[in-house]
Amino acid sequence: MRHRDVWPGAPTPLGARYRVGPDGVAGTNFALWAGGAEAVEVCLFDDGPRGPGTVETRLPLAELTHEIWHGFVPGVRPGQRYGFRVHGRWDPWTGARWNPAKLLLDPYARAVDGDFRLPPEVYGHVRDWPQQQVADTVRDERDSAPYVPKGVVVHDDAPDDEWADDRRPKTPWADSVIYELHVKGFTKLHPGIPEELRGTYAGLAHPAAIDHLQRLGVTAVELLPVHQFAHEDHLLRRGLHNYWGYNSIGYFAPHAGYAAGGTRGQQVEEFKAMVRALHAAGIEVILDVVYNHTAEAGEQGPTLSLRGIDNRGYYRLQSDPRRYADYTGCGNTLHVVQPQVLRLITDSLRYWVTEMGVDGFRFDLAAALARSMHDVDMLSPFLAVIAQDPVLRRVKLIAEPWDVGNGGYQVGAFPPLWTEWNDRYRDAVRDFWRGALPDVRDLGYRLSGSSDLYAWGGRRPYASVNFITAHDGFTLRDLVSYEHKHNEANGEGNRDGTNDNRSWNCGVEGESDDPAVNALRRRQLRNLLTTLLVSTGVPMLVAGDEMGRTQGGSNNAYCQDNAVSWLDWSLLDQPGAHGLYRLTRRLLALRHAHPVLRRRAFFSGRPQAPDGLRDLAWFTPRGAEMTPDDWYAPASTLGLFLSGRDIPGRDARGEKITDDSFLTVLHAGPDPVEFVLPGPPWAEAYELVVDTSLEDQVEEPGTVHEAGAAVTLPGRSVLLFRVRAAP
């Protein structure tokens, strides 16, 4: 070991921060919260005869301030690899799992170099102990350093105006259209991206990738997890990897596997450049974040970071503190009620906003974060801190409003400032188009903004993130091609993934060479996309659904880092897929042009002016307004009239907002039916704008029908009409 001095340094900020120290000497300050620990060493790794990063220098952090161990090491510069060893008691029966033989990743590491492997040496306990029922209680003394990645010191001297020339789009919630994508999967097969950039942040920043997003008309990308993550042991044993990334271990570090330019800090600058490029194109960046659990799993899991720093301080433990409370289904749950854990999460969130430039977050299993000691609590410390934080309360906040614990389903319960993934919307729309809704009451709420869930506490229709598909589940094409999951490639006996798909295969399971079946499937795709994009709320598309991407019936492709999950861009060369893409573009352009489709207030069902129309009306095929009995009766046809005459609110100049009025007619039945277009005072005439029975949508205005006329609705179709004056 080389000798190095360790000066006292400072307890804040946490992590490794390169700076100029006393007497103008440059170096790095290391600070680690490790409550209850007996000693902490920072370990520096340099290249040696045995290879890169094989020479370890251990330095004691002798200063202790408020449970934070700290020290300043002169001469340590950006690019230096490091980790921590934390000494303390080994007593799993009381939750104490300190083991200095295990090199630990800094929770505040800004960059990570190296891959996570999971040989026995990486476990704090003896994984192969003969009595497996107590294996987690036997400490493993083997050194894990050769098998784990290291943190990297990065430049932290960026000027305060680093983002001064960046123009955040700041798209209002009501105007937002979210596009969920995977950094690697979206770019890996894109023919317009240079091969060396595919699968990376630089690939997503490439003009060919951004051009697709701009032409489509989305306003935000929601990136599947980009925090540094690790792969689970059971996947590695089967030769698979965690593709989605919901297994975080580094909350400040961009996942190194998505970097084209290097992993010794280059990934940080590459990520920032990607954000800048997307912002320049008018596209916001939202991160899917996993603060509910970590990659260390349960008591049989590896010791990578938090478990070895302070197991009892970071994780929720059961009454038997040897065991972990698991509200996530992933083996552990972060103890967000603890101040140091709350600090870790909020420090991470602020870092990604202020220093990495992102515009918002989607919180995986957010109900687990909102738990106080046991129950979900909307006055929990986590939600309270977010609500008062001057940085975080200004960004987009999306909750996945459930977890797997008792009382974890909380759709509609999150407070103002939050939007939510609305699975009630997903289920109602899927059921309607597969002919499984007992009546249309629930569908009416979902199409009009879900006021039954969100019209409280000042919340608005855009509290509902409407989606039909997400990364988890069938793709849109598979939703109309499969009734059963086909996850055999995951190696779990097809037991993984949900059985509640609410899908319809149009008569044939899987791919078909029957032209009629394929035509019906394409029509159903158009129906589903049109329904989503004319509904009130914030629509979320999944990358590839606009071109009919398939996963071969897999509804849980979390470990398929291959062509199953990567976007097949050749689909755009196929007539049917390209027609779906053009329809999506048309609908998004229509939504952008018409504020009546992007309402900022819930419908009242009453006129907004003395001589006005009701802002919302529902019609039966007879052209008559629906009665209470109609809502409780089975129905496959529904007309929705949105009045643009008197839209609540004013524009930026204080002017009254007016718009065209629209009539959307949804018909899920297999046979054509007659629909009478509502007459005065609703309209004098209607112009056909979208007809999903057509394989391709014309750009020019459609046919004009007089009010009161009967039009034929083709089987399983959506017709969208714009109100016009009489011819």
Blueprint of the fold:
Blueprint: E1 15-20, E2 26-33, E3 39-48, E4 51-60, E5 63-65, E6 68-74, E7 81-87, E8 90-91, E9 96-97, E10 112-113, E11 150-152, E12 178-181, H1 183-187, H2 201-204, H3 207-216, E13 220-223, E14 227-229, H4 233-237, E15 248-254, H5 266-280, E16 284-289, H6 306-314, H7 339-354, E17 360-363, H8 366-369, H9 381-388, E18 396-399, E19 418-422, H10 423-433, H11 441-447, H12 451-454, E20 464-466, H13 476-479, H14 515-534, E21 538-542, H15 575-593, E22 616-619, H16 628-631, E23 637-642, E24 647-650, E25 656-657, E26 662-667, E27 673-676, E28 685-691, E29 704-706, E30 710-713, E31 717-724
Parallel strand pairs: 12-13, 12-21, 13-16, 16-17, 17-18, 18-19, 19-20, 20-21
Antiparallel strand pairs: 1-2, 2-6, 3-4, 3-7, 5-6, 7-11, 8-9, 10-11, 14-15, 22-23, 23-26, 24-25, 26-31, 27-30, 28-29, 28-31
Helix pairs in contact: 10-11, 14-15
Protein name: Glycogen debranching protein GlgX
GO biological process, one term: glycogen catabolic process
InterPro entries: GH, GH13_cat_dom, GlgX_Isoamylase_N_E_set, Glyco_hydro_13_N, Glyco_hydro_b, Glycogen_debranch_GlgX, Ig-like_fold, Ig_E-set
> Describe the biggest sheet?
8 strands, parallel, barrel
Shape: elongated
CATH level-3 fold name of the largest domain: TIM Barrel
Helix/strand/pairing class, anyone? alpha/beta
CATH superfamily of the largest domain: Glycosidases
Protein name: Glycogen debranching protein GlgX
GO molecular function: amylo-alpha-1,6-glucosidase activity
InterPro entries: GH, GH13_cat_dom, GlgX_Isoamylase_N_E_set, Glyco_hydro_13_N, Glyco_hydro_b, Glycogen_debranch_GlgX, Ig-like_fold, Ig_E-set
Keywords: Glycosidase, Hydrolase
